[in-house]
Amino acid sequence: MQTDISLKTLTTFGIAQQARYYTAVSNLSELLEALDFARQRQMPYFLLGGGSNILFTRDFPGLIIHMAIGGIQAQPEAEGQVLVRAGAGENWHQFVCWCLERGYYGLENLSLIPGTVGASPMQNIGAYGVEVKDHFAYLEALEVHTGEVHRFDAEACAFGYRESVFKKALKGRYIILEVAFQLHTQPKLRMDYGDIAATVEQLAAGAPPSPELVAQAVIQIRQSKLPDPAQIGNAGSFFKNPIVPEEQYHRLALRHPNMPHYPAAGGIKIPAGWLIEQAGFKGLTKGQVGVHARQALVLVNYGDARGEEVLALSEEIMQVVQERFGILLEREVNIL
């Protein structure tokens, strides 16, 4: 157990807040001990994975529990299926690469997404036409109150767009320990989203498309659009892409005929980055914070920003977008 630890290097935003206590846990026993430590002292605790989806706006007065439960196992099944299980603390991108190297396909479109395996079902991460729910088998999670481990299938997780039961109804009640994915040994490529097909064709140089080329394309596209947290502090996409009713979309389309849009469950999805750019924020800098010049969906820390400054900029963006388009953006990043 460590005390008064800086969170600057433990989060991708690089905000220099501190935690009163900090510990890393690599198995269930250590996790239970950490929870007991916090319980005995009646202090709050927070589970930290890759630190890529969190913004600390103040020092944390309790215990930061860094999830480091690792391990990957694969179990071949019938008809070209394979069940791959991974500890919640495994790095997500490294896990995707591990699967690709062994010919287990399905997650290649999710390459280079920051964070850990355990966080992936919590917010149903997705990119380029694929979401975690598309290849999810089950997860095992610790019920904090009872100390019992429960298994959740896809239905029990109640997946939605960047949502799951663990972000709402069961928030704070369970800690994800392990996630299992149903993958394929035969490629089933998804290249119909964004620039994937064109980038794969360019990379292939006449060779047939493959999951490995799809992964390379995704990595190249993401690196061209998104800043590297090692170079400039950020948490990736700060806002969710809003889904609006069809009637609202049609009214907006009359005034903005070039507005990009995509069909989605419950209505029409409009890219939040486009809304933010149209509102005049793309490339904006305010002191040590700003909106990235290549991707308006990304808020950045240019060096020594405080969490409150990032939060204030996000609130200003939300206000202006709502005034101009009648759409209230929702943050994807967790605020503490």
- Spans of 5+ residues with little confidence (pLDDT < 50)? none
- How is the main sheet built? 5 strands, antiparallel
How many DSSP-defined strands?
20
Please give the CATH architecture of the largest domain.
2-Layer Sandwich
Strand content: 25-35%
Subcellular location: Cytoplasm
Keywords: Cell cycle, Cell division, Cell shape, Cell wall biogenesis/degradation, Cytoplasm, FAD, Flavoprotein, NADP, Oxidoreductase, Peptidoglycan synthesis
Organism: Nitritalea halalkaliphila LW7
Pfam family, one: MurB_C
How would you describe this protein?
This protein is an alpha+beta fold and 336 residues long. The strands form six sheets. Strands 6-7-12-10-11 form a five-stranded antiparallel sheet. It has helices spanning 28-40, 92-101, 119-122, 154-157, 196-204, 211-225, 246-255, 272-278, 307-325, and strands spanning 2-6, 18-25, 45-48, 54-55, 60-67, 72-76, 81-87, 126-127, 130-131, 136-143, 149-153, 174-184, 233-237, 243-244, 262-264, 267-269, 285-286, 289-291, 298-301, 334-335. Helix 5 (196-204) packs across helix 6. The protein starts with a strand and ends with a strand. The chain folds into three domains: 2-67, Uridine Diphospho-n-acetylenolpyruvylglucosamine Reductase, domain 2 (2-Layer Sandwich), CATH 3.30.43.10; 72-205, 2-Layer Sandwich (Uridine Diphospho-n-acetylenolpyruvylglucosamine Reductase, domain 3); 233-335, Uridine Diphospho-n-acetylenolpyruvylglucosamine Reductase, domain 1 (Alpha-Beta Complex).
